[in-house]
Design a protein that fits this description.
about 425 residues; mainly beta; RNA Polymerase Alpha Subunit, Chain A, domain 2; about 15% helix
Length: about 425
């Protein structure tokens, strides 16, 4: 029995060697069938941070991607490319505290077999900060001036404070949290939804890295007239009519209201709700024009602010149409040695535009043109064109006839005697 055991022991090395040879032959065969290649990984590489502790936030910018060089069988490369398999560059910050750290990058790729030979970068800088939430009262920053005839109360805010979350380094920069309210020339109560903004001690808005509990603050500021003051609508007074051929399109006044003051409050309250301008004579207007006009202030009262208003008188010409007859036709561009005969020699032109301008246009004022450049001898039916560019806002609607007969022939020369 001892001899048999010894015989088995002698055979084991040979068997192991045979097995190794068989595995080697199989590996070589597989490599020949599915060879391994080293390539650059070209699919998407996602950079992912894991293990970020509660109450911490990362404040620096990570690499956008990682360049990977790896070895894999051709069949594996085909799977990666065909299925668009992406890799993950993992930055594990588990158990790291606030501060600056250099963290190794680990590559994860859900496919096998592969061998990652190199990748860049190998590490990433990670800056971690404490993340907090703080409460700030809202400050209203008013811009502009309220007219002297009005009084204003302190603004009322809803809500009056806001919670702001962010990295401690950002929160420490906040001097105030404000909303900006425009009160310039305000004559009635203002109610607006305004956006809060954190501002540092230099007055610069901290534009990023912060999260607000609300993005709108309702601000209401009550504005009322002082005693003895009254705001009246401005009513424009006119006389006359626009010249013949023109029409009044409208009147606009700026400012549209005027403020007056009187120590007699009863008198102020008894006035109508408007104040009239001095007379404007419409006979003088044939185009849009802005004029400064005084106001008729009631006795015992005074104007507050501007003593006159700007009135824009919008006047336009009445649109009409007119036919201008016997407009002569000329030719241009005919080659030397040729002559053109036109029939008919005149046309009628149908025009549209402002009546005052149309009434000044006659047949002798217009001419029609036919372009004959490079046209050989022959007979043509051509459309004349009429130039009315020197008459503002006048258009050619049509001509009659629309085409004329043009015969081009060789110019006759007189024989020498």
């Amino acid at each position: 029995m001892k001899k048999g055991f010894l015989s088995v022991l002698k055979v084991i090395p040979t068997a192991i060697l045979a097995l190794l040879l068989a595995v080697t032959v199989w590996i070589v065969a597989m490599m020949q069938k599915d060879p391994t290649e080293e390539r650059r990984f070209t699919n998407t590489v996602t950079v992912e941070v894991r293990g970020l502790g509660e109450g911490l936030v990362m404040t620096n910018v990570l690499p956008e991607t990682v360049s990977i060089l790896m070895r894999a069988p051709v069949s594996t490369w085909a799977t990666i490319l065909n299925q668009r398999i992406g890799a993950t560059a993992v930055i594990d910050v588990t158990d790291l505290e606030a501060g600056e750290h250099i963290v190794p990058i680990k590559i994860e790729l859900p496919v096998a077999p592969i061998q990652i030979t190199s990748y860049v970068p190998l590490t990433a800088k990670v800056v971690l900060e404490k993340y907090e939430t703080r409460t700030y009262d809202i400050v209203v920053s008013e811009v502009g001036i309220i007219p002297a005839a009005f009084k204003a109360e302190d603004p009322v805010l809803e809500p009056a404070s806001v919670d702001i979350s962010g990295p401690v380094s950002q929160l420490d920069q906040i001097d105030i949290v404000r909303v900006v309210l425009d009160v310039d020339n305000a004559k009635e109560t203002i109610s607006k939804a305004l956006t809060p903004a954190a501002v540092n001690e230099n007055g610069t808005v901290i534009a990023s890295g912060l999260k607000y509990s609300t993005d709108k603050i309702k601000v209401t500021k009550e504005i009322t007239l002082r005693g003895g003051y009254r705001v009246l609508v401005v009513k424009v007074r006119t006389t006359g009519t626009t010249p013949r051929g023109y029409v009044l399109d409208g009147l606009t006044v700026n400012p549209a209201v005027a403020t007056i003051y009187s120590s007699d409050e009863a008198q102020i309250e008894s006035l109508p709700g408007f104040i009239e301008t001095d007379l404007i004579n419409l006979d003088d207007f044939s185009e849009e024009e802005t004029v400064k006009v005084g106001l008729m202030v009631p006795e015992g009262a005074t104007l507050v602010g501007d003593q006159a208003v700007d009135v824009t008188v919008r006047v336009s010409a009445v649109e009409g149409s007119r036919t201008v007859s016997n407009v002569r036709i000329d030719t241009i561009g005919i080659d030397a040695g040729l002559v053109a005969t036109i029939s008919p020699e005149v046309i009628d032109v149908f025009l549209s535009g402002p009546e005052p301008t149309l009434n000044q246009i006659f047949g002798a004022d217009l001419f029609a043109v036919i372009e004959l450049h490079d046209k050989p001898i022959g007979q043509y039916q051509l459309m004349p064109t009429v130039d009315v560019s020197r008459y503002p806002n006048v258009k050619v609607q049509s001509v009659t006839p629309m085409t004329v007969d043009v015969t081009i022939s060789k110019k006759q020369t007189m024989p020498l005697r």
